[in-house]
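Q: I have 315 residues here and want to know how they pack in 3D. Can you give me a structure?
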Amino acid sequence: MKKKNFIISIVIILILFLLLVSCYQYDVAISDYLKSISSDGLDFAMQMITYFGNIICLLIITLFLIIALDYRTSKNIVEVILTGLLTNTLIKLIFRRPRPLSIFYEQGYSFPSGHMMLSVMFYGYLCYLVYHSKCRKSLKIAFYITMTLLVGAIGLSRVYLNVHYLTDVIGGILFGYLMMLLFIIYTKQKHKLIDESIRLDRSFKYAFKGIGTVVLYEKNMHIHVLATICVLILGLKFEITKFEWLACLIVIGMVISSEIFNTAIEKCVDYISLEKNKLAASIKDMAAGAVLINAIIALIVGIIIFLPKIILYLK
């Protein structure tokens, strides 16, 4: 979702929430009207509908989705339910609104409706997944309409059964929609970071693969590796200082990295120029010259550090 659309949605939700507070006076009147049209058949139908917003029903649907969908999507759906439960509990503890008296016993506070908030988050997130799927447009529209009618029916059932006031249901819709938006933004950002981390891991993998190729198949690199091993052994033997270690490591890195660059340049020139020519030969000579300069500097540093120690050791 674009930042502009998100801000607009937040403003609309805040305005609706302020209007919601002013509608408390109509709650009892609406509940009384629904009681007046109640019947055994309607009671049974509403109890069946309200079950689709129950946490147990949502978890059962989630189990089927886990089997059908990939790990990442399934994990997100589970997180939607857990986030909705936690947020709804916290909001109820803030408002602490008692439930209306009803023959259908429900625990906890009334505002906002947990069934409604979870339904909006859960079925709304399913609509979001369908929107990004490869289904036909007609099927997507049919799914959106079905989910909208289902969520609306769940809200109506909560008021009809008198376990919530109408404003509890509307509050559940507003908070559920807000949490769904925040969750979508969060998962997008999280997956973006994960994808970047995966790309970073792959870049390290390719880098080590390149180093391994040069070490295994290039004869000049074998000489550099052997020299590096000798330097490390001598450094440990003569217990050189931290600054001497630093100088050794710098020149070792210079020589090995320049050899890798030299090899890469040679391979690139051979790939581009299949036939021998003076320009290609000149490019290779310059790259080899860079390796030679670094090797000479490394040799000088090695002589300065180790020659006095070796002479003293031999005396």
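Q: Anything worth noting?
A: The chain has two domains: 3-18+39-200, 218-314. The first helix runs from residue 3 to 21.
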